[in-house]
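dumping this here so i dont lose it
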């Protein structure tokens, strides 16, 4: 709705009635709503407590929380279209008008405009107050329009047979066979009939004229490759799937519960989701399905649409603004009962949710960076609690956090331990990179075993996927002899090279070590900076296999819209023999032609300066290995590393997340990292380096003071920093961070709130931005 706010008119959201003034002297003044913008609410009332919870937990203004939740472009200023009315035409011709009114009306008489263009055309500012005044006089109309293209549904022609008195014996042979097909198989599309009887279109036309068949249009969904999505029939569940479904189905509609569904890749988790979704719909409850953000429509989205057709709404970043808005309204108006989408889908405006599914719950794309920094996986559980729903978190490689919640009894668990088609997991061969440390150039990274495997794959006419995760940091210090990375002695975090300081530093606590230091494990002075990237590998492939068609998929090559689709199309149609890529290739794609996956250097992820590096490595390797051998032929994986005995790598080889968890959890406990503590990152940035540094110092002092004054803060809170962020300058802003952690969430949040209030006290007027990231993921 439109409300007065100071001297402006802004979009507001109705959350409930205002409180009555308590006494005559109460300073509370209730203003009137200017206009109601939507005939039906954009979200149900039941979501308001959810929004309020988010605002409190993530320390973010409520209005901005709602703004983040709603599809973009709903704010009146950028989508209101002004159209002149009959009365406006008359007024323009006859009434005495203020000059600006005259200008506005004559501009709108030519064509409808939004306020931006109206201002341009009238060459002066136009206030909303004036617009609304003119609207109230009936001169103009204000429509909220999204100008983006609306989705047009695609239809195909289907044929149904008509009961007629025509004697079948009098039909021609071809007509008779068409009639027979329709009678035995049910309705068929003309395209389908044409593949069997090439002259079908003409025959159908004739039969339609004769009243023997009826032709009708049927809506179909398209996948991004342009292929229609065929509707499917549910397969028979495997014994394991049936057990999982039977365990969870009785939980629907019985209040809040969270179940972690751990199932290896290819074990048929999606079919379990589909059955439970059906069960929820049968009870009249809605279903929310969250999937990781990937470049394309996901496999799971395609399968939900195949099973449930029009009742599915989708919400993801691949949609245009208009399409998103349409989908949102379909949900809000209950035209859809299932919503599938990436992280923002957690805000889908359903009133009666019975089931929330989070697929690949370990995936980092559920974390929103910038603005409201929420984690959709966590919010799924929170929303399920608010709505008394069942939450299912599914993964082949569950996060340490979620499995920990199982071990402490917060979550229930269900498991799938075998592949549906009984195919073995791909065989994984590890290659010790330190064996090839004396090889020159690219041969150090494309070892002989890997080369041979690629050669063999190409000879068999299959495809190879080479994976190398080189993001941002290229300079991890690692011992060239024993393969140990240089780590911080306080934090067990890999150090990063700061060229300017000529030193290795820990970006959690600030510990630093001179750049010329020797390896603390073996004393070798041969410290190597891992610095190989996807581009180098692609070039090497072209050189080593001159006849192979080589392509690369990473953030550098995939910026153009549509690039991903066309690359994946080439891969699907086997126009690519070797694909080199970053983690973009590890997710969700399913290509039967890929029989070999090569992990060029697993250590790049393993030594990423983050306490979750081991966890990410395990997940990424287990997932990327799952890309091989999806077809009939078994898959092979060559995994190159300096640390073949590292438990993350061993566990990934066996796809054994419990083995990984049992080791990792010990480190987390010893060092006080999540899940034993919670963290908040306070980020400070500013254009002026001295001003920013001074502000940061004050905030650091405030931390110490707060701890000196408050016993609970002293005991329960650990403050790391302030320290310059590892990416110390982005877009000319100097970046700093303070990491705060505590085993107690309430105390941690109270501390962060006080710190931010303190910041407001010291920052009056300074152009410094301070943001709070609750449960941070990327500490860069
Ligand atoms: P996951 O999500 O666990 O990796 P999927 O759900 O993608 O596994 O299932 C793997 C494959 O097995 C898919 O091609 C799916 O269609 C098929 N599948 C799943 N369940 C069954 C079943 N009960 N009968 C036959 N095929 C199945
Ligand atoms: Zn060493
Ligand atoms: Zn440290």
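and the seq i came up w/
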């Amino acid at each position: 709705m439109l409300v007065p706010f100071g001297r402006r008119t802004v979009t507001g959201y109705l959350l409930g009635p205002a409180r009555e003034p308590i006494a005559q002297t109460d300073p509370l003044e209730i203003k009137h709503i200017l206009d109601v913008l939507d005939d039906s609410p954009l979200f149900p009332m039941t979501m308001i407590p959810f929004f309020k919870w988010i605002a409190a937990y993530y320390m973010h203004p409520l209005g901005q929380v709602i703004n983040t939740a709603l599809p973009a472009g709903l704010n009146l200023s950028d989508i209101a279209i002004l159209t002149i009315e009959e009365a406006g035409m008359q007024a323009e011709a006859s009434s005495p008008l203020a000059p600006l009114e005259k200008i506005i009306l004559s501009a709108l008489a030519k064509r409808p405009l939004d306020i931006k263009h109206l201002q341009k055309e009238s060459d002066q500012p136009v206030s909303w107050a004036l617009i609304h005044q003119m609207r109230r006089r009936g001169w103009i109309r204000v429509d909220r329009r999204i100008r983006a293209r609306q989705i047009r549904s695609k239809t195909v022609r289907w044929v149904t047979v008509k009961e007629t008195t025509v004697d079948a014996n009098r039909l021609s042979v071809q007509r008779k066979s068409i009639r027979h097909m329709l009678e035995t198989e049910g309705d068929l599309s003309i395209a389908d009939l044409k593949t069997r009887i090439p002259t079908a279109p003409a025959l159908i036309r004739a039969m339609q004229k004769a009243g023997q068949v009826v032709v009708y249009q049927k809506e179909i969904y398209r996948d991004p490759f342009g292929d229609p999505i065929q509707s499917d029939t549910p397969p028979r569940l495997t014994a394991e799937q049936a057990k999982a479904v039977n365990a969870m189905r009785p939980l629907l509609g019985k209040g809040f519960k969270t179940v972690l569904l751990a199932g290896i890749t290819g074990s048929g988790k999606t079919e379990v989701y589909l059955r439970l979704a059906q069960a929820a719909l049968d009870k009249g409850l809605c279903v929310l399905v969250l999937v990781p953000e990937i470049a394309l429509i996901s496999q799971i989205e395609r399968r939900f649409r195949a099973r449930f057709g029009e009742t599915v709404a989708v919400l993801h970043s691949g949609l245009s603004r208009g399409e998103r808005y349409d989908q949102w309204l379909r949900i809000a108006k209950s035209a859809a009962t299932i919503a599938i989408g990436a992280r923002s889908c957690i805000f889908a405006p359903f009133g009666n949710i019975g089931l929330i599914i989070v697929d690949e719950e370990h995936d980092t794309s559920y974390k929103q960076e910038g603005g409201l920094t929420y984690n959709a996986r966590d919010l799924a559980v929170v929303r399920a609690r608010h709505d008394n729903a069942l939450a299912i978190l599914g993964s082949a490689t569950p996060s340490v956090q979620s499995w920990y919640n199982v071990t402490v009894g917060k979550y229930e668990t269900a498991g799938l331990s075998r592949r549906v088609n009984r195919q073995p997991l791909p065989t994984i061969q590890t290659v010790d990179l330190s064996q090839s440390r004396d090889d020159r150039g690219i041969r150090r990274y494309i070892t002989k075993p890997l080369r041979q495997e690629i050669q063999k794959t190409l000879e068999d006419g299959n495809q190879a996927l080479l994976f190398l995760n080189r993001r941002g940091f290229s300079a991890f210090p690692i011992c060239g002899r024993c393969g140990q990375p240089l780590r911080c002695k306080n934090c067990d975090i890999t150090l990063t090279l700061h060229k300017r300081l000529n030193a290795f530093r820990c970006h959690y606590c600030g510990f630093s070590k001179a750049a010329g230091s020797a390896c603390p494990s073996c004393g070798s002075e041969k410290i190597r900076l891992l610095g190989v990237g996807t581009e180098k590998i692609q070039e090497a492939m072209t050189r080593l296999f001159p006849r192979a068609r080589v392509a690369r998929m990473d953030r550098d090559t995939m910026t153009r819209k549509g690039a991903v689709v066309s690359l994946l199309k080439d891969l699907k149609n086997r126009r690519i023999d070797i694909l080199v890529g970053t983690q973009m290739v590890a997710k969700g794609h399913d290509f039967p032609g890929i029989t070999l996956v090569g992990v060029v250097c697993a250590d790049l992820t393993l030594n990423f300066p983050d306490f979750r590096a081991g966890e990410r490595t395990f997940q990424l390797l287990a997932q990327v290995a799952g890309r091989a051998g999806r077809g009939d032929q078994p898959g092979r994986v060559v995994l190159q590393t300096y640390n073949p005995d590292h438990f993350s790598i061993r566990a990934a080889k066996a796809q054994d997340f419990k083995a990984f968890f049992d080791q990792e959890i010990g480190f987390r406990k010893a060092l006080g990292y999540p899940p034993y503590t919670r963290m908040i990152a306070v980020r400070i940035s500013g254009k002026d380096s001295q001003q920013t540094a001074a502000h940061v110092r004050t905030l650091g002092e405030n931390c110490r003071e707060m701890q000196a004054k408050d016993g609970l803060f002293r005991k329960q809170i650990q403050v790391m920093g302030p320290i310059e962020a590892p990416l110390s300058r982005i877009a000319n802003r100097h970046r700093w961070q303070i990491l705060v952690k505590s085993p107690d969430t309430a105390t941690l949040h109270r501390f962060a709130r006080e710190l931010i209030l303190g910041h407001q006290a010291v920052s009056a007027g300074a152009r410094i931005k301070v943001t709070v990231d609750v449960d941070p993921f990327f500490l860069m």
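The pocket of zinc ion (ligand 2) is lined by residues 479, 481-482, 484, 519, 521-522, 524 (CB under 6 Å).
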